[in-house]
Amino acid sequence: MQGMGLAPLVVLATSGKNWVFHIFAPLLLLFLKTILFLFRKRKKHPFYERNAAMKFSCEKLLLQNAVNTASRAVAAKSSIPALEGLLLTCGGESLTVSGYNMQTGIRTKFTAEVEESGELVVNARLISEILRRLPDDVVTFTANDKFLIHLTCGDADFDIMGLSAADFPELPEVEEKYAVQIAEKTLKTMIQQTSFAVSTNEARPVHMGSLFEVSAEGLTVVSVDGFRLALRKEALEKIEGGAFSFVAPGTALNEVERICEEIDEVVTITLGQRHILFEVGETELICRRLEGEFLDYKNAIPRRNPINVVVDTKTMLQSLERVSVVISEKLKSPVRCQFGEDKVTMSAKTANGDAKDVCRIAGDGQGLEIGFNNRYLMDALRYAPADTVRMELNTGISPAIIVPVEGEENFLYMVLPVRLKAN
Questions:
Q1: What is the dihedral of CA 132, 137, 138, 140, to 10 degrees?
Q2: N or C end of the chain: smaller count of CB under 10 Å?
């Protein structure tokens, strides 16, 4: 046993210097790889501190708008202080403001008068409160290498502390796999008219976002929460990389909708391996795509419905609002709808009282009695982009389909019924 224990030492002793090379060469290679990794990731490493000293000036409103936009992606509370802040990067003739909560990142850029380039992190809530109270004048922002920030505007001045930019995590890079372009105002309305049906049930994470399908037919956005479905379609002028689809988180889409304006400027949507990039003017939003199997909505929507009536959306919405007065969060009740010849009688009954109203329609409802969650039906009518819609019905336990009266079906809403108790 002792001879076997000494054998390796004998081999090393007889092999001269080769044993030193065989032991230390892998360690040296590992050391060099580590140095190279730190160099590439120097943004995150304290040994490679970036220049914190910076100075720029700009209109207060420009900085305030950028801070408000990027703050939407700032973590409300985090164990990492930098995530509660905004990364300010100035260089050339521009300032970039970035926020990142490890799920969604927003960075926006605008023109500023830069005297000294640099970057640091400033607390988002604090800078927002300061800017909100400053007069409408030119803001001068100065920081030294100790992260001390001096901010002046008119007769007001503030001295606050910042954080090292090295503490701020890098926003993901989105490699371009597929891309599509769409008008800003079109994307805004498509999100508005479908996001209300995004699920909040964490048991099915993939339904906590909206499905985007891009093909030669155009862009289709679908949201579903198990009780209703919202679908919008729009034609596209240009797609790159062929047909593709992805699911974007509902929280991120709400921010995209807020960033977009009612203008014809183009938004570029880029799909990467794991992330999605929305480029809206000088603002970029990056979010992680949701994985999983989304509902096969094409087979889930019944279209062979024998009852078809035409409804004025505003009139029916007002009738629903009237009967919903007796319904509350504590006292829930379905709205009972009795579809007849050219009219639908709606009623609701709770401990608060009884409510009844008649809404005029066009068509024969064939005496169908069906119940709906008042909020779900009201949402579908409220967001339908048409003054009049066609309601397709079948039985009291079949979904109601809401589509355009005529022309191309650029929207579709499906609302599942609620079982009614006998009167």
A1: -50
A2: N
Residue 64's contacts (CB-CB under 8 Å, 6 or more residues apart) are 128, 131, 132
Helix (H, G, I), strand (E, B) or coil at 88: strand
Which position has the higher pLDDT, 32 or 392? Answer: 392
Exposed/middle/buried for residue 364 (C-beta within 10 Å: 0-12, 13-18, 19+): middle
Report the 10 Å Cβ neighbour count for 174: 20
Lateral strand order in the sheet of 113-116: 113-116, 54-59, 138-143, 148-153, 156-161
Q: Per residue in 309-349, pLDDT tens?
A: 999 999 999 999 999 999 998 988 999 999 999 999 999 99
Encode 84-113: b = buried (16+ Cβ within 10 Å), e = exposed: bbbbbbbbeeebbbbbbbeebbbbbbbebe
Instruction: Name the residue with tokens 């891309």.
Output: 179
Per-residue CA distances from 176 to 243, 275, 278, 301 (Å): 14, 10, 12, 33
Q: Is 298 exposed, middle or buried (0-12, 13-18, 19+ CB in 10 A)?
A: exposed
SS3 72: coil
**CA-based nearest residue to 160, from 170, 147, 169:** 147
Q: What order of strands is seen across the sheet that includes strand 94-100?
A: 163-164, 118-123, 85-91, 94-100, 104-111, 283-288, 275-280, 266-271, 178-183, 239-240
Long-range contacts of 385-389 (CB under 8 A, 24+ apart): 385/189, 385/193, 385/410, 385/411, 386/313, 386/411, 387/312, 387/313, 387/314, 388/310, 388/311, 388/312, 388/313, 389/310, 389/311, 389/313
Given a contact cutoff of 8 angstroms between Cβ atoms, the answer to whether 83 and 156 are in contact is no
Separation between Cα atoms, residue 136 and residue 152, nearest integer Å:
12
Q: How many CB atoms lie within 10 A of CB 235?
A: 12
What's the CA gap between 139 and 81, in Å, rounded? 25
Give the confidence band of 13 by pLDDT, cuts at 50, 70, 90: very low
At 52, list the tokens.
């914190």
